[in-house]
Amino acid sequence: MDSIICQDVEKQNLARGLNHSSPIQVKTLPLQNSDDSGGEGLKPPSKFTAVIHAVTPLVSQSQPVLKLLVAAAKSQYCAQIIVLWNCDKPLPAKHRWPATAVPVIVIEGESKVMSSRFLPYDNIITDAVLSLDEDTVLSTTEVDFAFTVWQSFPERIVGYPARSHFWDNSKERWGYTSKWTNDYSMVLTGAAIYHKYYHYLYTQYLPASLKNMVDQLANCEDILMNFLVSAVTKLPPIKVTQKKQYKETMMGQTSRASRWADPDHFAQRQSCMNTFASWFGYMPLIHSQMRLDPVLFKDQVSILRKKYRDIERL
């Protein structure tokens, strides 16, 4: 059975290619449904695979990555968890990982580069991928809500951290901003759900030059994935809830995860925006002012009537 993304995206966009001027042409690619959820017609995938990108060693049982793993595993929609171990230190012993009701697969990357998080791993058995940075802070309720939204928009990136692009007239180049504004054009893959088919496109159809840039900088892989998905769909991503802070602030400043605090990090992302736009031949990112919240969110009714009641407390 063809998947929803096949019926929606392939029919509407892949049949005519990404763009007349785009270097990517994906019109002949098949989209297979790997989700074993069954059903007929347009029934959406019922489970996701959480993929956690880990770059720092396990030194404490209170580390954010372990809390995140437990929160994802408790989701009723979680089929399995994959930990991509891109840390320079050896793999932790099996007993260091928390016990969960779903399988936890740890994959040690050979090259340990940023682009490896978007490889089309055979271990990903579901159509839906919940992509997570190791220092992301999400509750099980937030995971559940994001996935139910994605089920209605399986061709898009759906998640929490939103960013935007703009044209800087003074510099005559594209700019990147993390400021809280009334619109956005990217949802970062540190806390987002998308179709695993985009792993295949990222790996097979983006040029080595862009992926090498990402790997050398250890930066911008999330921006590049947003460029790719918007180029395919001609649609913006979808932000869920009002949540803006999604990173654990207590990560050690000596870790690779502290790259967000590096003053060069933001400048690199500005440069990435323009390099990516140059290769695509246009700016594929699209602004959106839509944010999806749970029904009854912040409404003055009994908390007992609300399905995602915990989100209001976060």
TrEMBL record:
Alphabetically sorted, this entry's keywords are:
Disulfide bond, Endoplasmic reticulum, Glycoprotein, Glycosyltransferase, Manganese, Membrane, Metal-binding, Signal-anchor, Transferase, Transmembrane, Transmembrane helix
Q: SUPFAM superfamilies, from UniProt? A: Nucleotide-diphospho-sugar transferases
Q: Give the EC number(s) under which this enzyme is classified.
A: 2.4.1.225
Instruction: Enumerate the Gene Ontology biological process terms.
Output: heparan sulfate proteoglycan biosynthetic process; ossification
- Which reactions fall under this protein's catalytic activity? 3-O-{alpha-D-GlcNAc-[(1->4)-beta-D-GlcA-(1->4)-alpha-D-GlcNAc](n)-(1->4)-beta-D-GlcA-(1->3)-beta-D-Gal-(1->3)-beta-D-Gal-(1->4)-beta-D-Xyl}-L-seryl-[protein] + UDP-alpha-D-glucuronate = 3-O-{[(1->4)-beta-D-GlcA-(1->4)-alpha-D-GlcNAc](n+1)-(1->4)-beta-D-GlcA-(1->3)-beta-D-Gal-(1->3)-beta-D-Gal-(1->4)-beta-D-Xyl}-L-seryl-[protein] + UDP + H(+)
Membrane topology summary: Single-pass type II membrane protein
User: Gene3D superfamilies attached here?
Assistant: Spore Coat Polysaccharide Biosynthesis Protein SpsA, Chain A
Segments forming a coiled coil:
none
User: Which family does the similarity line name?
Assistant: Belongs to the glycosyltransferase 47 family.
Can you state the subunit structure given in the record? Part of the heparan sulfate polymerase, a dimeric complex composed of EXT1 and EXT2. Could also form homooligomeric complexes. Interacts with NDST1.
Function of the protein? Glycosyltransferase forming with EXT2 the heterodimeric heparan sulfate polymerase which catalyzes the elongation of the heparan sulfate glycan backbone. Glycan backbone extension consists in the alternating transfer of (1->4)-beta-D-GlcA and (1->4)-alpha-D-GlcNAc residues from their respective UDP-sugar donors.
Q: What is this protein called?
A: Exostosin-1
Q: Which organism is it from?
A: Galemys pyrenaicus
